[in-house]
Structures
1.
Amino acid sequence: MDSAGDIGFIGLAASLVLVVVAFAISLRLRLRLERDLVVSVGRGLVQLLIVGAALAIIIDPDTPLVWSWVWVVGIVVFAAATVKRRAPAVPGLFWIGLAANGVTAIVGFAVAFGLGIFPVRGTTLVPVAGMLIGNSMKSAIVVAERLVEALSEQRAEVEARLALGQPWVVASRPILRGVMRTALSPQIENTKALGIVFLPGAMTGLILAGVDPLDAVLVQLALMYLILGGVATTTAVTALGAVRRLFTSDHRLVALPRSQRDTG
Amino acid sequence: MPEGESLFAFESVSVGPPEARRLHELDARLPPGGLTVVAGPSGSGKSTLLRLCNRLEVPSEGTVRHRGEDVALRDPLKLRREVAMVFQRPVTFAGTVLDNLREADRDCDELRGAELLERVGLAATFLARDANELSGGEAQRACLARALATNPHVMLMDEPTSALDAQATDVLERLAKQLVRDGTPVVWVSHSEEQMRRLADCVLLLAAGRVDREGSAQEVLGDG
């Protein structure tokens, strides 16, 4: 096979040269990231190898399709747990994240498979779910973190609005709009820069695996549109769900930590 | 004083978790009219007490009454339009001064806007000014006009001059006294004894979340 799809373990080991470069830079500039680097590379390697082995079983044509659906549900639950972990100040965020990623998966699948863009197979279901939910999860995290931060930083403005008798829905609206724009902008910018600044993941993977570039482009475009829609859906569901939990039923803003930004 | 006549009555009010109370079983009554100054050192619970009056905070224990009625039973949105508030630092919203007034009264036209600004000593030309470009004193007066746009029965003022210079402070104090003369009682939080002497008809002195002294300005402050 002359495609780049089977680099083998020797190829993988060769690519670690760049990790060594990163390690050397960290050491030389005393960034103290060496341990993190080793852990992240090791953890990523083990995780992906396990996932690869599991996927090989799940997407095998002889494996019942139900296992692919189980995998998808697992992704959605894991995504919700990750969102919850990143913005613990929002009460009930796990369920909001579950609803947001669940709705995104349902809408995305309805379009991707209902309209026949992709055939319903393990080889399409699992990767499409991964890309869709992976991107949606990132935007849900941005929305939840940024919402807590913005409401905390702009508490004076929100309370000035509440003090005028505005209901929480109205008082939080300017902040909610700003936060949703922040969460959606990167995906819109990514879509704008498609092909010019970067070649997106699925397309790069397909070309590396020897697929005709035009076919790869069509798959990528369909995925990007799905992701864009998914990110918008997740952002809206998370933002609206989270903001509701940050106000009491008598229109008071709950106590919030000064900053939620996780730099780790 | 009969309970029904108090502007606000605080009955065994505590705020905050037991290990970090901001107010401790506080009992106090604010008179129905005039300008009441709530004073005390930093951390004594002045602002917390004020925020209980319009339900930006709720007591952990006890009852807060407004003219005899338990505020917990009132519609908070309606209560806040009747019990307006001006904050320590002027908080203007994006847009013009007229846009700001419309946040309080959707139907506020230029004529009504000019009337509101006149009450706080600002010219009608301010209506078109960018609210975020105003000086501290102008912004605080615009905030007072915005608070007045809900036609409140009471005005709460939480150290409204702490970020202002002497001249702007003087203007705001005169506006508060004018509000009282026009029949709107004012509850003013201050940590300055001089300001208390200039303004107060009645004084409620707090210390560490409890009432230290309360009464008429003369009773509490003496002739000092």
2.
Amino acid sequence: MNKETKRKLIAYLLVLPAFLTVMAVVAIPIFTALKTSFTDPDTGGFTLSNYGYFFTTPNELKNLGFTLYVVVVTVVLAIIIAYLLALYLRFIKSPISRAIGSLYLLPRFIPSLVAVYAMITIIRDSGLLNRISQLFGGDFKPGLMYQASGMILMNMWFNVPFAALMITAGLGAIPDSMIESARDVGASKLQVFRSIILPLSFKDVVIASTFVFMSNVGSFTTPYLMGGNFPKMLGISLFDQFNKYLRYERAAALSVIMFLICSVSAGVYIYTNLKEKEWEK
Amino acid sequence: MKKSRIFAGFMAAAMMVTALTGCGGGKKDDGVSAERLKTVKVWATGSDNVRQIFESMVKDFNENSDYKDQYQAELNFMLSGTGAQTLPDMLAAAYKANQTNTDYDVIDMGGDDLSKIIDLIGEDAFVKIDTSKIPNSSKVSAKSAVAADYCQPYRGTTVVLAYNSKNVSEPPKTMEELFQWAKDHPGRFAYNTPGTGGAGDSFARTTVYNDLPEEAMTSADQKWTEQWDAGFAKLAELHPSIYQSGGKIVYPNKNQGALDLLSNGEIDMCPMWADMLLSQRAAGTVPDYIKMSTIEPSFTGSVQSMMIPAFGSNVDGAYAFMDYMLTDSTQEMLVKQMAAIPLIDTSGMDMTGYEDLAQLDVSKFRIMSIGELGTAFNERWDNEIGAIG
């Protein structure tokens, strides 16, 4: 055995445990789920009815539309807020911005369940806001619980710090010299933003959006605790099909549908990454 | 096909475990050592509050009971809902593998677990209770709905109507009055989504089954589903009167979701487990003015029992533990620690803070066991009632 093959063999051996683990816990379950999603629960034969159910039942279509609505609004709001926050952290140097810079990631370290319950305590119709309003003789009911608006508010807590982290890293890579030279030749602040900062950070914005999108399509904790009975987010719908109605075939079909929705976003992510390589050439 | 494969997996696991423990103990097949006969192995399953009460009972049994010199109890606890093998599965595996002299001396069973184990291995896998060996059992009149001769009930639990006594002076006495009250006070009543907690299940199911023959309550026969329509129509009629948030009808998720609404004054009434209400009231998380009452026909409830597997090792020790569980002091412990409904006369106990429990009549509990129909029920509720919007 020559040296070259030996080295290759060792390399494969080193990769093997990771490869087998991924096959066993990712690839095989995905394949089984795919197969189950095309299986007729009664006859065990091939069928498309599990998919048909989700695209023909009015209630399920409403769930799908509702999920997309919540996710898209979450992505748009989270990215706008995160971008403004990142701009502030990057270009304003003050004790306050430094304090915010070290604090804004804190929400990431609070267990999601705790955060959701904290939010519920504040925004429920008998919560903190309501009690404060009662001190002043009012009876303010936020009306956010069990609504899309409440869930979107909660999603901000989870996604703004995450998106801001990614965008801040992108903005940090823009050299000050570039901005200064533009300013020297007379570019206004708006021009600097439009022709330098925005184009250079656009890729990070797209990547942050895809991540926020994907993590919210299948979200569970927030809609389970804060969502209403109907329409439901797909994560809850999946849980119900699997745990409550014991319809494993439909649950598998819904998983595949959710996977496909996410893969659109994954496609955007891959495309953006490839484009960068071309630009670097 | 799938079931049998899972079952085979359990069997293999159970056989491995027993084979391994067999090696360790050096136990012979033909009998049980004298030392083993001094030990009672107690098996229980459930939520964490069940673990706590069983730990207290085992400790108390070993230190203070009349049997402390004769037996020492050991607890094996299976936390429910953690995805691990369940106690009924383990028992079924041991029984079907023809194990004898196992560690399953005495087990805690009730509700769905009990129906499941009887379905799996039948009553004959258990020792028929000899009440002469449990002197305290004469004080208990409650019977298990399933396998009554093989179960020694020791505590009860039931769903009651919880209400805010500051806003409701006279709680409804019947189901009809309850519906009328809810319609007269829109937004002040709620029940949790069926399938997310037993209290909401009980309300929705009794509403539907009150119109059906009594035998339907304990039948998994598909034919009863055809008679659900009238009950579902009633639930749909009640829908506009349910709790609202932000202008939308909301059924809270989980028992706790409904209880939170009641504690926070967002609703005035909801069905709730008696033990949840009382233990949280004792802990101070539910205000004192939240009270409970029963209605006619009642919501569902059940008794929890101890059983002796015929393939255990210490029948006399098991009887001793059962007898201990029915003493005044142990029943008082069950009341104080988990707000269980005591099954013996409460005059000898200190019921301070739990007076409501003494009034619950265990003999009037309605047991419901509709097996697989429960799944279909929840799905229909979600699609027909939950989705009204």
